[in-house]
TrEMBL record:
It comes from Hippocampus comes. LDL-receptor class B repeats lie at residues 112-154, 155-201, 374-416, 417-460. GO terms for biological process: canonical Wnt signaling pathway; vesicle-mediated transport. SMART domains: EGF, LY. One of its GO terms (cellular component) is plasma membrane. GO terms for molecular function: Wnt receptor activity; Wnt-protein binding. Pfam families: Ldl_recept_b (PF00058). This is EGF-like domain-containing protein. Residues 285-325 form the EGF-like domain. PANTHER family: LDL RECEPTOR RELATED PROTEIN 1-RELATED (PTHR46513:SF37), VITELLOGENIN RECEPTOR-LIKE PROTEIN-RELATED-RELATED (PTHR46513).
Length: 461
């Protein structure tokens, strides 16, 4: 019979033996860094330091992520206001409409979804990897979201918020449930910037660009002048720094062995380490029926490897919590300067349609809706135009553009298919045209003093 002491000694020896075996086993996958520097996405061999350009000729790329099993990169462009994906020389648009400033991006490599934060529209959205089934996941009490990270094994979504009154890091399930604040910045802290998950230790790591601190306060001062993004690999933490134009790394436990991985001519933004350990596998609760699971449309991972069903824009989840129906639901349409939103009547933080924003909107003053063609019409006093688009974001076009000062009122005649509007600037008028802008005509030009709001009742003429 072996004593407890001898047994513990043997187990410790076996554990050390296993650790040695693991450390000596060669890794068949050669890790490399991918990072963005506005105009390119580059690849750096982790152990050699050699770099190559993966995607050239970009406008202003900020966030990026990858799907290792599909050998696919995903990235955002805040000038083009689009989300792209590509495989080396091949790339294309995934999300094209309703984006303003998508600063954070995260790929769910298990259920096959993509998440992003909109720092201008103050919301978090999700869609399938191909951009379909897009919906608003979280909105309301989101002030300035910046970075986003996922752990699909546990179904957890993390994001940072630069809220001036309460800088913080929040978490929720990847289906948007169970939202909670897990860290509040105190003292002089205020810019929780980059964020990542240490999958080996099941903890989050972030960088604060205000105090220039690593989340564990292991690295600070001159080594962190304006850190933007952070990631992990093995026993090291990696980050980008705007002020020094560098990619650097250090020991994730002690903060020692700080090393510059690469210097860049322009500001480096997001970075990831491309390696299987950065996307650990787990059971997929949405695996059935081509990734829909038991849902009619969009299946999202919830806590503890469970699922939750969601609906794309223009649809609503039914009482069975699995089926989506829509295209005849009521929604509230409203505008505020640089955006137009259509929200669910019963849930004002749920966007029933995608948001319309820059560059199609500069200073919107009036908005109306044509239920026959499912189009939105709006006037913009800064560009002095009236535009329209389908509620799915496509078909944006200008219908009236000449002699249109201060168009503060707009109304659609859905029976006769005409468009009425008010304008004033020394010449106060109410005008009408066909919905496409043709056959423009002044209806009233006398007895007006800076006309603003307008409404029509076509049934009664």
């Amino acid at each position: 019979m072996v004593s407890n002491k001898a047994s513990k000694k043997r187990k410790k020896k076996e554990k050390m033996s296993n650790l040695c075996t693991l450390s000596l086993s060669p890794d068949p996958f050669k890790p490399f860094i991918i990072f963005s520097n506005r105009h390119e996405i580059r690849r750096i061999e982790l152990h050699k330091g050699e770099f190559s350009v993966l995607v050239p000729g970009l406008r202003n790329t900020i966030a990026l992520d990858f799907h290792l099993n599909q050998s696919t990169l995903y990235w955002t462009d805040v000038v083009e206001d689009k989300i792209y994906r590509g495989k080396l020389s091949e790339n294309g648009v995934v999300i094209q409409y309703g984006l303003a400033t998508p600063e954070g991006l995260a790929v769910d490599w298990i259920a096959g979804n993509i998440y992003w934060v909109e720092s201008n529209l103050d919301q978090i959205e999700v869609a399938k990897l191909d951009g379909t089934m897009r919906t608003t996941l979280l909105a309301g009490e989101v002030e300035h979201p910046r970075a986003i990270a996922l752990d699909p094994r546990d179904g957890i979504l993390f994001w940072t918020d630069w809220d001036a009154s309460l800088p913080r890091i929040e978490a929720a399930s990847m289906s948007g449930e169970g939202r909670r604040t897990i860290h509040r910045e105190t003292g002089s802290g205020g810019w929780p910037n980059g964020l990542t998950v240490d999958y080996m230790e099941r903890r989050i790591v972030w960088i604060d660009a205000s105090t220039h601190d690593h989340s564990l306060a292991l690295i600070r001062g001159s080594y962190l002048t304006h850190p933007f993004a952070v990631t992990m690999y093995g026993g090291d933490v990696y980050w980008t720094d705007w002020r020094t134009n560098t990619l650097a790394k250090a020991n994730k436990w002690t903060g020692h062995n700080i090393t510059v991985v690469q210097r860049t001519n322009t500001q480096p933004f997001d970075l990831q380490v491309y390696h299987p350990s950065r996307q650990p596998q787990a059971p997929n609760p949405c695996a059935a029926i081509d990734g829909k699971g038991p849902c009619s449309h969009l299946c999202l991972i919830n806590f503890n490897q469970t699922f939750s069903c969601a609906c794309p824009h223009l649809m609503k989840l039914q009482a069975d919590k699995r089926t989506c129906k829509g295209k005849c639901n009521n929604f509230l349409l409203y505008a505020r300067q640089i955006e137009i939103r259509g929200v669910d009547i019963d849930n004002p933080y749920y966007n029933y349609i995608i948001s319309f924003t820059v560059p199609d909107i500069d200073n919107v003053t009036a908005v109306d809706y044509d239920a026959v063609e499912h189009r939105i019409y709006w006037s913009d006093v800064r560009t002095q135009t009236i535009k329209r688009a389908f509620i799915n974001g496509t078909g944006v076009e200008t219908v009236v553009s000449a002699d249109l000062p201060n168009a503060h009122g707009l109304a659609v005649d859905w029976v006769s298919r005409n468009l009425f509007w008010t304008s004033y600037d020394g010449f106060d008028v109410i005008e009408v045209a066909r919905l496409n802008g043709s056959f423009r005509y002044v209806v009233i030009s006398q007895g007006l003093d800076k006309p603003r709001a307008i409404a029509v009742h076509p049934v009664k003429g």
